[in-house]
Amino acid sequence: MPSRRRTRFAPPLAAATALLLPLVACGSSKDPSDKRPGPTKKPTATVTPRPGDQKVTLVWKGEKRVYRVHTPPGYTRAGRLPLVIAMHPYPADGEAMAEISGLNAKADKENFLVAYPDGLNRGFNALICCGTEDDVGFIRAITETLTGSWKADPARVYATGISNGGDMAYKLAVELPGTFAAISPVSGGYLGTGAEKKSYVPRTPVSVLTFIGGLDEHYAGMDAGINAWQNRLSCEPDDRQLLKKNRIRKTAATCRDGSEVVVYRLPKMGHSWPNGAGGDMSDPTAGVNATDVMWRFFEKHTLDSSESPS
């Protein structure tokens, strides 16, 4: 193992972020929003928790909102199962996210719940796109419902997403302290006006696993973003590996707050989900299966009972 030292990161986040602003395919916009969530308003839709797939439609702050829940075979409310919030790219919806990620099959095998929120107008109000909706509050309400009446384990709640949904995972980690034990943004970034502030970091430990493609036109911004995240949280490198297949670079670091950051840089991948299950954003030749690696990472991380909002 290499000697431990303070990590140095480059290029500057603000400069790299500027490269992404015109690129709407990544969920980009010139309309950044730093809006914080207001008081939680729980969904009022009546749905009976049961195994399988359910679509939940509700009115949230005057807007019709939708999310889908997948529960594994044999699910009952008697057990506390982990929960993964999985967020789609822009423009898409939760059904597309399920297809890209293959998380339903993984949930059936590993026994966890998956929730797929639909962004309003097919996108989330993440760090640099899209819209002005209180999606942080909406997703907070979903997690409260699923850890409440659905009895998911509040100590094992995780978030993932691709592109705009990956950006949203970073936003949730910062703006919902004490909610997520770990996140896994795929082809997404810690970017935008809000993320340029050094104070814009999680108040409770949130571990991060991320995948970024060397052929992604947004690579520079995403790379700068995860470097800034580590710098601000005083993360020190633990391990660096060069994987033989596709010369993938894997780095791991431990941060001052006890969280972990693992980054897969895939030189031959574009704006995609590594070895996804289907859809245009799945790259079957990426050399690593993001869904499998992600779940192993999530299993390692549990929210401590003391990690709650102050």
Walkthrough of the structure:
With 310 residues, this protein is of the alpha/beta class. It has a single domain, classed as 3-Layer(aba) Sandwich (Rossmann fold). The protein is built from 8 helices and 12 strands. Helix 1 runs antiparallel to helix 7. The N terminus is likely disordered.
Can you give me a brief rundown of this structure?
The chain is α/β, with parallel strands linked by helices. It has one domain (13-299): Rossmann fold (3-Layer(aba) Sandwich).
SSE sequence, one letter per element: HEEEHHEHEHEHEHEEEEEH
**In the residues, how many domains can be counted?**
1
Structural class: alpha/beta
- Overall average pLDDT: 87
Q: Which stretches are low in confidence, meaning pLDDT under 50 for 5 or more residues running?
A: 1-41
Strand content: 25-35%
- Global outline: globular
| Top CATH class | Alpha Beta
Strand order of the largest sheet: 1-2-4-3-5-6-7-10-9-8
CATH architecture: 3-Layer(aba) Sandwich
Q: In this structure, how is the largest beta sheet organized?
A: 10 strands, mixed
